[in-house]
Amino acid sequence: MIKLTRWVLGVCWVIAGLGAGEVKSPDGRLAVDVRLTADGAPVYELRRDGELVLGESRLGLVRDDADFSRGLKLIGESKTTVVKDRYELLTAKRRVNTYRAHKKIFRLAAAGGQRVHVVFQVSNDGVAFRYVFPDMDETPRTVGEEITSFRFPTGSKAWLQAMSVAQTGWAKTNPSYEEYYEQEIEAGTPSPLGAGWVFPALFRTGETWVLISETGLGRGYCGTRLRHESVGGEYRIGFPDARETIGGEPVNPRFSLPYSTPWRVIAVGDLKTVTESSLGTDLADPAIRTAKLAGAPGKASWSWPKLGDSKTVYDVQRRFIDYAAEMGWAYCLIDALWDKQITEQQLAELLAHAKTKNVGVLLWYNSNGDWNDAFQTPKHRVLKPVERRAEFARLRALGVQGVKIDFFGGDGRAFVELYHDLLEDAAKAGLLVNFHGATLPRGWSRTYPNLMTVEAVRGYEFVTFEQVNADRAPAHMAMLPFARNVFDPMDFTPVCLVGPGKIKRRTTVAAELATAVLFTSGIQHYVEIPDVMARQPDYVREVLKTLPTVWEESRFLAGYPGKLAVFARRGADGRWWVAGFNGEPTAKSVEVSLAGFGRGDAVSVITDGESGGFVRSDNTLDGAARVLRMDLKPYGGFLATGQ
pLDDT-derived band of residue 576, with 50, 70 and 90 as boundaries? Predict the structure, then answer.
């Protein structure tokens, strides 16, 4: 019956359109049907196990010299081929990644003869497609709009972060991918800010989860989003606000031919499949060659979250260098205003002292030209190529390991070019990079091995600003492993054990500790300060000293976006770390199987004590499934480990 139904559907597609093609995943569970409608518009449908995931959705774009969204002819299609890849990634949830997909190319031509190839690759965990323009022509072409859409069936739910409006917010620093997620809303709900939705975008239709993003964002294109309007649950690709630019340069894509657009990525499956997927880096461009890097993934001390701009001074930063050394952490980040509040001689002394302590130093920079009003310095040192390269060379000569660059102005084509310029020039100088106030990295951490992490999240700093942020933080933090942090490293800056300040934190101390494992980042900058860390139990400090900085493997164990997140991660020594986080104000009991996680039946667990502090215990796993049972307090958590 199922085969007959699929045959009937295929016949209907051929009758309704002009040619059809199907691409299946290697395991046969995912199937994409591609065709041209009667008026020559390219469309596709996606099914999982025969059930509709995406209904008839649009393909194509409109270039200034040709319309590739309608009036097209199918001039050929390739045979289905197998694509395989294997690569190493030190800044995400899995060090060694493998990719296998079925690939099919649909060759189309516009009325004027201009050609476009629509390339589909379908793996067991999702679908990716892009547009390739094979013609040779040095004349720059501009894309007016991209027609690509994703049509969800009626009744689908969505977990989406609104795109903030350009040049709004503090010092006009938006957009920075720093809004809350609207959780479990009806698909098709308009964005509350009217500027669209950012990637990654999470959906559920029936029992199938879908995570949409983009990767392989190269020069010539802009960063995209889902548009504000999504009538009937159909989401279209949108371009940036015209204000998201540098020097008035148009934000739209502009490139010479041949050219390949970024990949549209659709992770598909159950929640475990989607959260464990690496499609966002599988389809990214391979790593470039770099100079010998001055550092590698690691942990960092950082004074700013609790002490602010005024404490970026010599004595405090020397103390935080010593703090990093005591904790065995690789770095100390010296944040904004170091150029004003620390003299050149003092900086040299700090760097010399850090070297004796085997601690690397990272320095903060303001990216901005005229696109925002942020006052923090140093400014205007990394925007222009000649000045930037000289500054990077100077830093490397001084012994600085990396830079944190903040306050970008959006996703326009000129900003995408700037990101690539910064990463390439830093790579040539051997410097590590952390972007803040920035766009989603879209797989760049694979392409640029020196890119350690990117903010692109409403991180812990917001909890320090207002009580309302602390109130919303637990659900927000329980959301991030299912969307923002699935593909790309995320500089949320976790682990606040006291305070901050007069703010009443809603998360428990064990929940805060769990985020050190739950959130993945090439460099993990911890919020907590030396005095507070010194008062913690030895076993808590030992965890933060010994946690791996590179994860060999990650697994989803239990949870639901915004409500509960339980993940396991394995270090190079074979040791597993299991982190649980309760995003809701009600107590919960959690049972997870640790079958296949090491050999012993005993695990060490850190969770919340009755008095509000930590408590440590040794738990015995139950049965052949080696079940771990945990009771979580409201907004509570746990961290378990065993051999």
Answer: very high
Residue with tokens 């159950």: 270
Q: What is the pLDDT of residue 42?
A: 98
Q: Could you give the residue ranges of the DSSP H alpha helices within 342-466?
A: 344-356, 385-398, 413-429, 444-447, 461-465
Question: What are the tens digits of pLDDT across the range 259-271?
Answer: 999 999 999 999 9
Write down the catalytic residue from 406, 455, 488, 512. 406
Percentage, residues of the chain above pLDDT 90: 93
In CATH, which superfamily holds the domain spanning 564-642? Answer: Golgi alpha-mannosidase II (2.60.40.1180)
**pTM for this model (two decimals):** 0.96
What confidence tier does 3 reach under pLDDT thresholds 50, 70, 90? very low
3-class SS of residue 573 = coil
* CA separation for the pair 128, 215 (Å, rounded): 9
Is residue 406 annotated as a catalytic residue, yes or no? yes
Task: Assess whether 85 carries a catalytic annotation.
Answer: no
CB 489 within 8 A of CB 453: yes
Q: CATH classification of 298-537 is 3.20.20.70, yes or no?
A: yes
Q: Where are the beta strands (DSSP E) in 218-262?
A: 225-226, 234-238, 254-260
What's the angle, vertex CA 316, arms to CA 313 and CA 319, rounded to 5?
A: 145
Q: Which two tokens stand for residue 217?
A: 């964002």
Nearest to 131 by CA among 253, 23, 302: 253
**d(C-alpha 6, C-alpha 277), whole Å:** 27
Closest CA to 613 of 545, 515, 528, 536: 536
